[in-house]
Design goal:
- The complex is a heterotrimer of chains A (106), B (398) and C (186).
- Chain A has 106 residues and is mainly β.
- Chain A contains two helices and six strands.
- Chain B starts with 6 loop residues before the first strand and ends with a strand.
- In chain B, the strands form three sheets. Chain B has a seven-stranded mixed beta sheet, with helices on both faces.
- In chain B, helix 9 links the parallel strand 10 and strand 11.
- Chain C is of the alpha/beta class.
- The chains are: A mainly beta (106), B alpha/beta (398), C alpha/beta (186).
- Chains in contact: A-B, B-C.
Chain lengths: 106, 398, 186
């Protein structure tokens, strides 16, 4: 891997990153030991996980969902597992206890 | 350039005049003796409309240099100044300024480090900065102190360098001493150092990230770049001083040689004590027929190892005066360490001996210099194997 | 002329440092090399202050305190006769004092027959001009009158450069009065 990275002569001085948004190329999922899983049945769509996530990895989707009890939602919350570091803040904050941290198996 | 008006200026005022001539945009500093009157004078220039700059008042030197880093990252020509504990408090940010490759210029009025508290001169603070990645110069006249600031921007902002620069003077011995100085006017200065942003800056239209995380896959490459930038700084120093001489008529070299043409012995020194050595050479040594010269190190980082080694190779014995101590080191004084490695790495056998003198503002007198010269002369006919392994502590009470 | 070294003794607030600087400025204007520096420390009002002026026809390299002055100038009459003021004063050097006493009496007080003495009542002159004992320009007047080290008009030029407009007139008046009223014994 290291062999393909640019050498010191071709890097911009001062470690300036000249291309905006390049962080998307840096996937941080392998920092995770626990993986958050949202139980769509229990989720009340309060949006608190979306608010608290320090990495912005909770995705709000215009995707309808109907619970087994017949409750209809217009939105669904899912997790971007490419960047989620598994910190567990979402599970801690969820008032409906709809997010569980389960062991990451790779 | 002869016949221009000379003003009687203290070292500090001479530096303030130079920063004004460089038309700096931001002055971010915190007062500390003996540097204070530099930024005091600059604040006065700003207050009375002679200089259009932002003076940032901060709560500490750590913040002073942090604000300087921010302003430089935004593309401003930035100036700051400090001494002693102020430099110590800046230490963390000094590495950041140099690794972010920001061409900040800082004047340093050198002063001893606490404890015990001491406001007087030595090189403890200067030497503590020697591995921070800044280009470092030390003047020994107020004219040179003035000129160094102009030179510093020339070197710092050169696209091949982009490193911060320290221009140092000795606290009190220079900072508070009045000497005739021919100040450079703004128009002349700006022809020599045009205001052009040569480094990558923060700009909403061209967003960049500065100061990111550098993981083990990346960090080392940037350190290797800094090493190269220091080497470039030496080339640019040589070009800049040549152009400076053409423009302003004053010549500066990384190393000043005084009475070295026929010298058999030399003292190596930096700063005001070099003046005392010169006076001793002219008024005493040469009158007694001793072929003594002075090697004054002006550029300390990057260290002019090549030329110092070369001049030493022709001498019978050399003494190095340090106004600082590298406690527990294999050599003693830091200037001695650099001089020794410069010579011995090139296989030069000249005996080189170390003198530690003038710590905490203790004057280095004619008598002290005579002691050092005598000890250097005593090494005539000896080799580096005969050099005392401990420095001579000159002027300390037993 | 060779080298001429002056040590100034006063108390914080009297202007000893400024006197040292003005004299250096005047010397530079007269074509000499000159440097001036205070004794380094935490300056404060009322504390004893030393300042130095070094004048030479040749470039001045050293940055060391003056140990053997050619002249000492005593700005504070209460310091006349003090050991520290006489320290290192060269034989046939100048002892220049702010005092109402005549120079012969000062020479008796300091007990040095080998030095030249000049006196001027700078405090009285300064009180008349400034209503305050700011004696530094008066003492420069006495120094240049006694020693001839720098022409008076060069000191006047230095005063014009150094002080704001409104202080120039009174300072030059004081300088000239002291220059003319100095009493000397050689």
């Amino acid at each position: 891997m290291t062999a393909q990275l640019p050498g010191w002569k071709s890097l911009p001085p001062g470690a300036v990153i000249t291309r905006p948004g390049s962080t998307v190329e840096y996937k941080t999922h392998d920092w995770r030991t626990l993986r958050p899983v949202i139980d769509q049945e229990r989720c009340i769509r309060c949006r608190l996980c979306w608010l608290y996530c320090p990495e912005g990895t909770i995705i709000e989707l215009d995707k309808p969902y109907t619970t087994k009890a017949g409750r209809k939602y217009t939105r669904t919350y899912e997790i971007n597992y490419d960047y989620c570091k598994g910190c567990g803040i979402c599970a801690q904050e969820c008032p409906a206890k709809a997010i569980k941290m389960i062991e990451e198996v790779r | 350039m002869a016949g221009k008006k000379k003003l009687p200026l203290s070292g500090n005022t001479a530096i303030a005049y130079a920063a004004k001539a460089a038309d700096v945009d931001v002055i971010s500093a915190y007062p500390i003796t003996p540097q204070t009157t530099i930024v005091e004078k600059l604040a006065e220039f700003v207050a009375n409309g002679e200089l259009n700059a932002e003076v940032i008042h901060v709560e500490s030197e750590h913040s002073a240099l942090s604000a300087a880093v921010g302003a430089s990252a935004a593309g401003a020509r930035v100036f700051t100044a400090s001494s002693s504990q102020g430099i110590a408090l800046m230490y963390e940010i000094m590495f950041i300024a140099s690794s972010m490759r920001l061409p900040i210029v800082m004047a340093m009025a050198t002063r001893a480090l606490s404890a015990p508290i001491n406001i007087w001169n030595d090189h403890g603070d200067f030497m503590a900065a020697s591995d921070t990645g800044w280009v470092m110069m030390m003047a020994h006249t107020n004219q040179e102190a003035h000129d160094d600031v102009i030179l510093a921007y020339k070197i710092a902002e050169h696209p091949d360098v982009l490193l911060p620069v320290i221009t140092a003077i000795d606290g009190y011995f220079m900072s508070h001493t009045i000497e005739p100085v021919e100040p450079i006017e703004r128009e002349e200065a700006l022809k020599f150092i045009p205001k052009k942003v040569t480094w990558r800056v923060l700009d909403p239209d061209n967003p960049v990230t500065m100061g990111p995380l550098g993981t083990p896959e990346w960090y080392y490459e940037f350190k290797r770049q800094q090493h190269e930038a220091m080497k470039k700084a030496r080339e640019v120093f040589d070009e800049a001083t040549k152009e400076f001489e053409k423009t302003f008529g004053r010549n500066y070299e990384p190393v000043e040689y005084f009475m070295m043409d026929d010298a058999e012995y030399a003292l190596v020194a930096m700063g005001s004590v070099a003046g005392n050595v010169k006076a001793y050479i002219v008024r005493e040594a040469r009158k007694r027929g001793i072929k003594l010269g002075l090697i004054r190190v002006k550029l300390f980082r990057p260290f002019p190892a090549e030329e110092i080694a070369e001049v030493i190779s022709n001498l019978k014995a050399v003494g190095v005066i340090d106004r600082a101590l590298a406690f527990g080191s294999s050599y003693g004084g830091p200037l001695y360490g650099d001089t020794l490695s410069a010579a011995y790495i090139r296989g030069i056998d000249t005996p080189i001996v170390n003198f530690v003198a003038g710590l905490g503002g203790r004057p280095v007198t004619f008598h002290d210099i005579k002691t050092m010269v005598d000890a250097t002369l005593a090494l005539d006919g000896k080799t580096r194997k005969d050099v005392p392994k401990e420095p001579y502590f000159i002027g300390v009470r037993e | 002329m060779g080298r001429f070294e002056i040590r100034w003794h006063g108390r914080g607030g009297m202007g000893a440092v400024t006197a040292a600087e003005l004299t250096a400025m005047a010397a530079v204007k007269a074509g000499y090399y000159a440097v001036a520096f205070p004794e380094f420390g935490a300056e404060r009002r009322g504390a004893p202050v030393k300042a130095y002026t070094r004048i030479d026809e040749e470039p001045i390299y050293e940055k060391t305190p003056i140990e053997e002055p050619d002249a000492v100038v005593v700005l504070d009459s209460s310091m006349v006769g003090q050991e520290a003021v006489l320290h290192g004063l060269k034989s046939s050097g100048w002892y220049i004092a702010n005092t109402a006493k005549d120079p012969e009496e000062i020479r008796r007080i300091i007990g040095r027959d080998d030095v030249k003495v000049a006196t001027v009542n700078a405090t009285k002159l300064a009180m008349e001009v400034f209503k305050a004992p700011i004696v530094n320009t008066a003492m420069i007047g006495a120094l240049v009158a006694a020693t001839g080290i720098v022409p008076l008009e060069k000191v006047e030029e230095a005063v014009r450069d150094r002080f704001p407009e409104r202080y120039v007139g009174p300072n030059i008046k004081l300088l000239r009065q002291a220059y003319e009223s100095v009493r000397v014994v050689v």
